[in-house]
Amino acid sequence: MAELFGGLLWHGGIVFLRVAALVSVLPAFGERAVPVRVRLAMAVAFTAIVAPAVPPATPPGDILGYGGLALLESAIGLGLGISIRLFILALQTGGTIAAQSTSLSQILGAANADPSPAMGHLLVMGGLALAVMTGLHVRAAEFLLLSYDLFPIGLRPDAQAVSAWGLSRVAEAFSLAFLLAAPFVIASFIYNLALGVINRAMPQLMVAFVGAPAITWGGMVLLLVAAPVLLGVWIREMHAFFGSGGGLLP
Length: 250
Description:
By secondary structure, this protein is mostly helical. 75% of the residues lie in helices and 0% in strands. It is built from seven helices and no strands. Helix 1 crosses helix 2 (36-50), helix 3 (63-101) runs parallel beside helix 6 (159-201) and helix 6 packs antiparallel against helix 7. The longest helix has 43 residues, at 159-201. It is elongated and about 85 Å long. It is found in: Cell membrane. This is Flagellar biosynthesis protein FliR. Keywords: Cell membrane, Cell projection, Cilium, Flagellum, Membrane, Transmembrane, Transmembrane helix. One of its GO terms (cellular component) is plasma membrane.
């Protein structure tokens, strides 16, 4: 019995390290607004799902081996979790660009745990709700299981390949952010161009007093119309990310 439960405890513990690191930064489940006890319970639940499907590994022979393996598994889990977390960064960055373009960046800028304009906060909350409703927990469990095929327990990933993958993920996140903010940037460009033409035609008119309410109202109306489409694009990109194994599959 001691040998049986000792082996199960070792296996569950080493799987828990990778799972807990990923869950700590996973969108929706790893938010700072979620209590630590709840996040710990979710990490244990994910471990109970993932551990039975992971091949058992041989325990290290000394304490240094245990420490190195714990650091390696935690680093792998954290890296995988950050690659998913970048989708939230894309929403926050896109919302910030959109708010700056439409003069709404100072409205409710610090009303949440991660200070951001109200436009970005609205997109993030909508994105988190949409992700959970479309099975984020299932996709995360599948992604964890795939990670053990790509990075078995105790196998150190190639640093150059991981670096290239990380850079590509960051580039894709910022590309997605600019894509989401594109309607607001285009509308702002047209607004400023029209304002410049009016100012040249009638220099005595205070165009700023006329244009400021227009761009604010226009930005809010554009957000109302474009937000469902933008969130649809965002969730499709997230599902494509999970479908491709996070870009790790050859």
